[in-house]
């Protein structure tokens, strides 16, 4: 893959102060671009080579950021709570995103993209035990390494399933 350059607005912007939420999640400012598999720091250039395509678009983590074989889906909140208990859930940034942290986890364990370093908001959430709307599901998975971060935490998503054929 030919690489491009990520718009600096979406990068870690090391000159700017870290956001309060990233600080709560223990973002390691010593390695703003993360590290490789051997723990060597990535530079802006090496990060772009790995995660930005020739059209200057960030390449999102494959498999929705999940370790292959770890995605577990539920259509019943009670079944999820039975299997996982009342996990601590949180959402970094705006509430309208697709993923939540499940059970805690640091910035690195969540394998978050660079721009998340500037986030100020970390919302604590919980499942109410109310039934999911028809056609909705909860998915929990182990987070894969991505964006120079090792992963290893858990993420949860709640989404509507496709209910008709095209």
Textual characterization of the structure:
The chain is α+β, with helices and mostly antiparallel strands and 166 residues long. The chain has one domain. The chain is 13% helix and 17% strand. The protein has a six-stranded antiparallel beta sheet. The chain starts with 19 loop residues before the first helix and ends in a 6-residue tail after the last strand. The mean pLDDT is 89.
Give the topology, please.
Layout: H1 20-24, H2 44-51, E1 72-74, H3 77-84, E2 89-92, E3 100-102, E4 122-125, E5 136-142, E6 154-160
Antiparallel strand pairs: 1-5, 2-3, 2-4, 3-6, 5-6
Number of strands: 6
Instruction: Write the element-wise H/E pattern from the N-terminal end onward.
Output: HHEHEEEEE
Number of helices: 3
The spatial strand order of the largest sheet comes to 1-5-6-3-2-4
Q: Strand percentage, roughly?
A: 15-25%
- Summarize model confidence as the mean pLDDT: 89
**Gross geometry:** globular
Main beta sheet, described?
6 strands, antiparallel
Q: Which regions contain 5 or more consecutive residues with pLDDT less than 50?
A: none
Distance between the termini: 32 Å
Count of the domains? 1
Spatial extent as radius of gyration: 17 Å
Question: In terms of structural class, how would the helical and strand content be classed?
Answer: alpha+beta
Share of residues in helices? 10-25%
Protein name: DUF4237 domain-containing protein
Pfam families: TNT
GO molecular function: NADP+ nucleosidase activity
């Amino acid at each position: 893959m030919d690489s491009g350059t990520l718009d600096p607005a979406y990068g870690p912007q090391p000159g700017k102060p870290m956001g309060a939420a990233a600080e709560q999640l223990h973002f390691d400012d010593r390695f703003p671009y993360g590290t490789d598999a051997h723990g060597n720091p990535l530079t802006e250039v090496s990060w772009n080579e790995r995660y930005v395509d020739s059209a200057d678009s960030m390449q999102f983590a494959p498999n929705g950021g999940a370790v292959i074989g770890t995605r577990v889906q539920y259509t019943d909140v009670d079944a999820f709570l039975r299997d996982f208990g009342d996990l601590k859930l949180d959402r970094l940034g705006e509430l309208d995103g697709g993923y939540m942290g499940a059970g805690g986890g640091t910035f690195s364990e969540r394998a978050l993209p660079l721009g998340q370093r500037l986030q100020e908001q970390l919302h604590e959430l919980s499942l109410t035990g109310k039934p999911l709307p028809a056609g909705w599901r909860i998915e929990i998975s182990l987070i894969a390494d991505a964006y120079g971060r090792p992963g290893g935490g858990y993420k949860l998503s709640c989404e509507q399933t496709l209910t008709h054929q095209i």
